[in-house]
Structure formats: structure tokens, C-alpha cells
Amino acid sequence: MDASQLVKGLLDVAVLAVVRDEDGYGYDVVRRLRAAGLEDVGDASVYGTLRRLYQAGSLTSYVVPSDEGPHRKYYAINERGRSVLADGTKTWQQFADTVDRVLHLDRVVAA
Amino acid sequence: MTAPTTTSAAQRYLADVEAELADLPPEERAELLDDLAMHLVAVEEEQDDRPLAARLGSSADYAAELRAAAGLPPRAAVSARPTRAWAAGARTRIAQIGQQRWARELRTFVPSLRPAWWVLRGYLVVLVPSLQGIDGTRDFPVPAPWGSHLVGVLAVLVGVTASVALGQRRLPRLIAALVLLGNAVLLTATWAALLDAPGRLSSYRFTAIVEPALRSPEAFPLTSVHGPVTNIFPYTAEGKPLTGVLLYDQDGRPLRSSLQQWWADGCRRVLAPPVAADGVAVPFSYPHAYQLEGAPVDPQAACLQAVAAPKVPLPSFAPAQPARPAQK
User: Fold this and answer.
1) What is the spatial distance between Cα A78 and Cα A59, in angstroms, rounded to a whole number?
2) Which residue blocks in chain B are alpha helix, DSSP H?
3) B277-284: long-range pairs with CB below 8 Å, 24+
4) CA distance A70 to B39
5) Which tens digits make up the pLDDT trace of B16-40?
6) CA A67, CA A54: separation in Å to the nearest integer?
7) Tens digit of pLDDT for each residue in A13-67?
8) Which residues sit opposite B223 in a β-bridge?
9) What is the ipTM of this complex?
10) What pLDDT sits at residue B28?
11) Contact A52 B32 (CB under 8 A)
């Protein structure tokens, strides 16, 4: 299976996860995801996801003006975002456990 | 600090992405692009020698990915791109009209006319070029390329067959576009030929009027380039109209003109030739005298016995000189 397809479906949870403890602006979020191992994650995908989560009310945002560089739009998780993240984490955990079992069973049958 | 060149690269990239998002509602696009501009500048802040397109992918891919992630619909077909609110409204309205019963029937009816168009196209493709150039043969309704109706009929058969075959086939995009272009050229040429028809008809006078006249000398014994000659009006050099002039040709045969059968005033007239002493009518006495006979073709017509002579621009001659005695 193509890992990038899998990542796309999980991007909501992953993005919420990297801003759970610290607010971040768009490229910041991309860097955190890549640093965490999701190296293939697309810049536009992350940015689009941030926007969608913001519109869905899972993130709040604020602009930090800067004299030297560009103004940055920071995203912060809110209560709704936290519950979405909790649900997503639970769903992923169950799914991952199931897949684990299937893969393990597969190995047993093959052996 | 961002170098101006990289900033303009970001602006260019942003403009390309913006073009890709042109179908989105204006507010949404503006908001998205406003954020994106900030984001692109942030991306540029990263020290990286590679151009933006290499780092972010093509603007089209970027826009597509952005749409997918942001939960926006994929780019609509070019034809269905609501760039303005009123355009979107109009589209909705058109879609509503399209759902109505008569519109649905029209949609099924119009395609059923396509074979008729194919046949017409095959005919026009032969007819329209044949109309160019006056070659003395009538090109309508049966075109006569190179002056031959037989060739015309064969060419129309070939043209119609080819046109129908072309219409039934599914063509590659490029070929289909060329065919569409050809259709447009053909229809334009047809339109031009239609506009030109009155002038062309007068050019056909020779074909339509003079030629049949030449073919049937009994009905039209005397013809000019303008068609059958139905009367002759002789004048003296002083401009005095003559009557009862007897005309003969170079071999001494009486000159017989055609007879006028149709009168502009809607009356019926018959030739009233003078009668010689031996009781024989002399039909080559000019100008012809006609007399009314029977009910007029047009019941409203006010019929007069006399027929006005045509107005002619008479030449004026110098007064005749007295004959000089021959010199010895």
C-alpha cells in the first residue's frame, strides 16, 4: 500500500497532534511532521488540512506581526480540536491493533 | 531578510496557484490566497537554493493537493468555471431550464438532426466552391463543377458519403477540432454565397435567360446579350420615332422579334400587326403594335391600349451638310 495515501487519511490527526502542545504556523507544522518521520508529507496537503480543520472549528488562529520577516498565521488547538484528536487517536489505535492482529495471523498461517 | 528576486518568484508561484483556483468563489479564493501568500514567504525564509517549483512541485499539483486537503472540490472543467457570482447564478438558471420538459425533448431532438446536417454538409462542400466563378452553367440546385452536372452529381454523392462517414466516427480531439473549424469555414462561405446571391443571379442572366432563348429559336427568334428581343423602336437621326418600319436581315429575310407575353401592368395583350393589301399580316413591322385582349391577369390592373415606348438617350448629330459637288 502506498504510504502517502495512508498518511493523507491520517493527516487530520497528525496535524492536530503536532499543535497539541505548541501553537504553530503552516510551515512550522510541516517541519514538525517531517521531523517526526512523515517525510513525504506535502506542503500543500498540510496547509489545506490546517485550513479545513480551522473551518471545521478544531483550530483557532491568530496572526503574529513581525518587523523583520513576514507576518505569520499561527494555529492553536481548541477544545473541539482536542476531542477530535482524542477520537482520532482512539480510532487509529483500534485500527492499528486490528491490522496488527491480521498481519500476525497472516504470519502464523504462512509459517 | 528575503531577497527581492525570491519574493518575486513567490509572487509568480502564488499567481500560478491563484490561476489554478480561479473557479472558487472570490471570497474563499482571496482568503485562501492571503494565507497562502504568508505561507509561501515562510517557505522562502528557509534557506534553500532550489527554486520554489522544485521544492513545492508544480503550481497545478500544489493547487490540486491544496484543494484535496482543504476539502474543496477538484478544479471544474474550464467551461463550467463560475468566476463571478452572477455567472454562477446564470449557470444555475440555465441548469434549471435544462431540466424542463421541452428542454429535455430539445436535447434529444437536436442530436437526431445530426445526420441531416452531415448530408447537407456533403452537398454544400460541393455546391459552395462550384458557385465561385461564372462558367455559364447553373450551379443550383445541382452543382456543376467544371461546367458538368454529371460531375456535380457524382461529387455530391462522394461528398455526402464522406461527410456521413465522418459524422458517425468518433474522432481524436485534434481531428475533431479541425472538422469543427472546417464546418465553420464552410458555413461562413455558404453565408457569403447567400449574401452574394442577388448579384450572382444577375450574372446568371446569361445562363438562365439567354441560353434557353438560344436553344429554342422558335420561341425566341431574336436575342441579345440581355435576353430575348421583343420589340424594336426605330428613330430618325433627328430623334423622331418611326412607326411601321419593316426590317430585314443581311440576307433579306424579315426580322422577327420575340413576342412580349408578360406585361408589367398586369394586362393581357396580343400582337396587332398591320395587314398588307393582299390581306396578309406583316409581323415584322416595328415597333410592334399590341392590343388588349381578354381579362387582365391582375384584376386590379387599369389597362390602357397604348404602351409607352421606352425612354432612350438619343444621340444628337450635327445638322446635315449639303452634298458637295464631286471634285474633278
Assistant:
1) 6
2) 4-20, 26-45, 52-56, 59-70, 85-99, 101-112, 114-131, 149-168, 173-195, 197-203, 205, 211-215
3) B282/B246, B283/B254, B283/B256, B284/B246, B284/B247, B284/B248, B284/B254, B284/B255, B284/B256
4) 9
5) 888 888 887 777 777 677 667 776 7
6) 26
7) 999 999 999 998 888 888 899 899 888 888 888 888 888 888 889 999 888 877 6
8) B228
9) 0.73
10) 74
11) no
Counting Cα atoms < 13 Å in the Cβ hemisphere of A22 gives: 7
B41-53 per-position pLDDT tens digit: 767 766 666 777 7
CA distances from B142 to B130, B139, B162, B172 (A): 10, 5, 18, 34
Main-chain phi, psi angles of A27, to 5 degrees: -75, -25
* pLDDT of the residue at B6: 47
Whole-angstrom Cα distance, residue B169 to residue B130? 27
Question: Model pTM?
Answer: 0.39
**Partners of residue A26 in chain B, C-beta under 8 Å:** 35, 38-39, 42
* Residues contacting residue B54 through CB under 8 Å, at least 6 positions apart: none
* Residue with the larger pLDDT of the pair B7 and B117: B117
Interface of chain A toward chain B, CB-CB under 8 angstroms? 8, 11, 25-28, 42-49, 51-52, 55, 68-73
Dmax (CA) of chain A:
64
All three cell numbers of A44: 500543500
Question: How far does B128 lie from chain A, in Å, by closest CA?
Answer: 57
Residue B152 CA from chain centroid, whole number: 20
Sign, CA dihedral B56-B57-B58-B60, equals negative
Task: Convert B172-190 to b/e letters by CB count within 10 Å (16 or more is b).
Answer: eeeeeeebeeeeeebeebb
Residues of A in contact with B45 (CB under 8 A): 27, 69-70
- Across the interface, do A48 and B71 touch by the CB < 8 Å criterion? yes
Q: Which residues of A touch B53 (CB under 8 A)?
A: none
Cβ neighbours around B313 below 10 Å, total? 4
Residue B266: count of CB within 10 angstroms of its CB = 14
Name every residue whose Cβ is closer than 8 Å to that of residue B18 and which is 6 or more positions away in sequence: B29, B33
User: Which residues of B fall within a CB distance of 8 Å from A58?
Assistant: none
Among candidates A63, A60, A72, A28, which has minimal Cα distance to A46?
A28
Instruction: Return the residue in B35, B50, B75 with the most chain A beta carbons within 10 A, the one to mutate for interface testing.
Output: B35
- Asked if the model's pLDDT at residue A105 lies above 80, the reply is no
As a whole number of angstroms, the distance between CA B211 and CA B138 comes to: 11
What is the Cα–Cα distance from A67 to B314, expressed in whole angstroms?
100
